């Protein structure tokens, strides 16, 4: 299974970023979890909208579902061009009702309510839900593949012990960490601190923790440092990062029309062994208008692709047409070190 982080900020994005959006793919079956602002744009860097088979929305706050109001236009054009034949299933909490009733649009969405205790079977995936502790009804999502709990997504929540039971044994815990401990001490509520996310990961015995829903104005390293004191195998969710999880060898994106559409065809610029250096290089390339795709390789000796430190290989990929320009820039960047 492949997880692509499309948006990792909340409740608003950093410049050029997006709010909650996580693309899951297995055997060519693509499901989007959350569809916050900026997610539709990012999604199309990886797949065509017509390939999407379902959207699951954790809760009806704008940073998790506002792009549904834009995605509907893309689907409508798809219908008219005959590229899409059936409504896209959208699963979301039925409350607040005033938001839920706004979701259906023409014939493009088939909207259904999610609830705790209801398992959802979509293609190769099974999803289960747990109501979290948030300002409005919100559901954490567990993702199963062939009976294995591959990933649990916290959605938005405060700390509550049942969440670690729900995440127990998952390969990856994709957990929000909107706050640091210092924020909670000042009375911040409705979200987790990085330390609480790490505590949940520790209690749940997950393989790896990926922190997301970050405040756009804060240095992500502060979240990482706070969490790493409690749980070692932790990383910051970086937009555009692709993780191979479980059932190794599953890389199933349909072939694209052009090399820009599908980063599978992009060329390797360099390999970095830590996400900080990879992020610095990616940031510099993006500043120069070069699209970048960071592909995390499965580490040697690790069953799953998510590790930190020297075991993780992060391949920095760029479109073939930008390779030469990127190489020159890389020499410049590394020459200054
Ligand atoms: Zn949120």
Structure description:
The structure is a single chain. The chain is α/β, with parallel strands linked by helices and 337 residues long. It folds into two domains: 2-244, Metallo-beta-lactamase, Chain A, CATH 3.60.15; 265-335, HD domain like (Alpha-Beta Plaits, 2-Layer Sandwich). The chain has helices at 39-43, 62-65, 68-80, 97-100, 162-167, 181-185, 194-204, 220-228, 275-287, 323-335; strands spanning 2-7, 21-26, 29-33, 52-56, 88-92, 109-113, 120-122, 125-131, 139-145, 148-153, 172-176, 208-212, 234-236, 242-244, 267-272, 293-297, 313-318. The strands form three sheets. A seven-stranded mixed beta sheet has the order 6-5-4-3-2-1-14. Strands 7-8-9-10-11-12-13 form a seven-stranded mixed beta sheet. The protein has a three-stranded antiparallel beta sheet with strand order 15-17-16, covered by helices on one side. Helix 7 crosses helix 8. The two termini are 37 Å apart. The chain binds zinc ion.
Overall number of structural domains: 2
Low-confidence spans: 248-262, 298-311
Total of DSSP H or I helical runs spanning 4+ residues: 10
Shape: globular
Rg from Cα: 19 Å
CATH-defined fold name of the largest domain:
Metallo-beta-lactamase, Chain A
Sheet with the most strands? 7 strands, mixed
Ligand species: zinc ion
What portion of the residues fall into strands of 2 or more residues?
25-35%
State the helicity in percent bands: 10-25%
* Alpha-beta classification: alpha/beta
SSE run: EEEHEHHEHEEEEEHEHHEHEEEHEEH
The side-by-side strand order for the widest beta sheet comes to 6-5-4-3-2-1-14
CATH class of the largest domain: Alpha Beta
CATH superfamily of the largest domain: Ribonuclease Z/Hydroxyacylglutathione hydrolase-like
């Amino acid at each position: 299974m492949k997880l692509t982080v499309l948006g990792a900020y909340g409740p608003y994005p950093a410049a050029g970023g997006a709010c909650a959006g996580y693309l899951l793919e297995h055997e060519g079956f693509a499901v989007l979890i959350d569809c916050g602002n900026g997610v539709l744009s990012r999604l199309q860097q990886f797949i065509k909208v017509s390939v999407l088979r379902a959207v699951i929305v954790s809760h009806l706050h704008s940073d998790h579902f506002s792009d549904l109001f834009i995605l509907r236009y893309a689907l409508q054009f798809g219908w008219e061009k005959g590229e899409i034949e059936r409504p896209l299933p959208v699963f979301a909490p039925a409350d607040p009702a005033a938001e839920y009733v706004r979701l259906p649009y023409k014939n493009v969405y088939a909207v259904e309510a999610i609830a705790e205790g209801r398992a959802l079977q979509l293609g190769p995936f099974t999803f289960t839900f747990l109501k979290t502790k948030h300002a409005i009804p919100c559901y954490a999502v567990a993702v199963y593949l062939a009976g294995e709990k591959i990933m649990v997504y916290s959605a938005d929540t405060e700390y509550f012990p049942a969440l670690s039971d729900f995440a127990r044994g998952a390969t990856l815990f994709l957990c929000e960490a909107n706050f640091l401990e210092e924020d909670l001490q000042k009375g911040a509520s409705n979200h987790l601190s990085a330390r609480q996310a790490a505590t949940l990961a520790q209690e749940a015995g997950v393989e790896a923790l990926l922190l997301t829903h970050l405040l756009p104005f804060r240095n992500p390293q502060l979240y990482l440092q706070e969490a790493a004191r409690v749980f070692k195998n932790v990383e910051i969710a970086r937009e555009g990062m692709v993780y191979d999880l479980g059932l190794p060898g599953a890389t199933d994106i349909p072939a694209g029309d052009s090399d820009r559409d599908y980063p599978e065809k992009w060329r390797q610029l360099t390999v970095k062994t830590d996400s900080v250096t990879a992020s610095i290089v990616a940031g510099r390339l993006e500043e120069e208008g070069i699209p970048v795709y960071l592909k995390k390789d499965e580490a040697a000796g690790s069953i799953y692709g998510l590790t930190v430190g020297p075991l993780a290989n992060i391949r920095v990929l760029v479109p073939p047409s930008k390779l030469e320009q990127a190489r020159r820039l890389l020499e410049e960047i590394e020459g200054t070190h």
